[in-house]
Amino acid sequence: MSAQRFQKPGWITAHVFNPLIAAITRGGLSVHGSRVLAVRGRTSGEIRTTPVNLLTVDGTRYLVAPRGHTQWVRNLRAAGEGELRLGRRAERFAATEVGDDEKPPILRAYLRKWKVEVGVFFGGVGPDAPDADLRRIAPDHPVFRIDAA
Length: 149
What we know:
Blueprint: H1 11-26, E1 34-40, E2 47-57, E3 60-64, H2 71-79, E4 81-86, E5 89-97, H3 103-118, H4 131-137, E6 143-148
Antiparallel strand pairs: 1-2, 1-4, 2-3, 3-6, 4-5, 5-6
């Protein structure tokens, strides 16, 4: 396996933006599709939470990791399941990682919806990029299909 790309969040993101979005989402308001992902830590066994953007494409729901192979990605791979929270509602789900060949239309839809927020993490590739560019960056951005548990 090649080196797995991960872009660590800056201080403002880690200490201001993500906690703010998580608090708003925990309060029951979705910010442009936001949810709080809860997944069991692969080493500690403790529940870990982080804000994520839930994407729906043709009726199928996905989680995309714009920053690459993050801790939540590694934990979700190990657990294979988790919970999406919005306010008091918690939805258990099973996660299936999507192969790189299937990612281009999902990444395109993700970039169409959230490019302003996350575009910097996609190496200049935008929603109107050729499929070849989306395939090239696909290994750097894990994608999980979300199915009801």
